[in-house]
Specification:
single chain; alpha/beta; Arc Repressor Mutant, subunit A; CBS-domain; 2 domains; four-stranded mixed beta sheet; 9 helices; 9 strands; elongated; binds adenosine-5'-diphosphate; HTH_11; UCP026546_HTH-CBS; CBS domain-containing protein
Length: 210
Amino acid sequence: MELNARQYKILDIVKNNQPITGEEIAQKLNLTRATLRPDLSILTMSGLLEARPRVGYFYVDKGFTNITGDYLKKLKVGEVKSLPIVITEGQSIYEAIVTLFLEDVGTIYVVKDGFLSGVVSRKDLLKTTMGKANLETTPVDVVMTRLSHIIFVEEDSSVYEAIKKIINYQVDSLPVVKKVIVDGKEYLEVVGRFTKTNIAKLFLELAEGK
Ligand code: ADP
């Protein structure tokens, strides 16, 4: 059986607050009781929830315990991504540092002709202070991680897949890209960023049953 995102949320809410009335579930989701009725019937009919009259809903643990895993596999990066912060290849390391502070981010994406060409992180920039480079004249391309090494996701990648990449490759953020073909060649347009903060926010929301 395929559940939708709202049904997973309802299961989570019931699990953490049982017994809970339909009205209370609706309040937590900022929806009306009527809107939730079909979801609650599906969950009750499939045996995942038990409804006791005048008491409320209970969660029925049927070995169906990996709710978070199922939810993260279903949720798309496009639904939780943040706005990307980009600079253009050729801009200076100094400008990159200023952007990092102004935009309050840890990683900046570098674009060339509008398409992704590099990633520059806090540590990449910090490293430049150890050499003798002139920060105002040295282009950011010198210190960025180049395209062929960039780990990225697309908007319809699952959040689960994105979290695995962040952990496996030990990076703080992934550019969210859209593949574009120009003259038979593939380019990556930057449409967002997915960061450790996105993950933390998501878990806070799950914990609070939002
Ligand atoms: P920090 O500099 O704060 O440690 P990261 O751990 O994200 O931040 O970056 C570590 C290194 O990995 C840096 O050299 C950075 O350029 C590179 N990097 C960051 N994000 C990515 C990514 N999505 N794909 C490939 N390399 C990345």
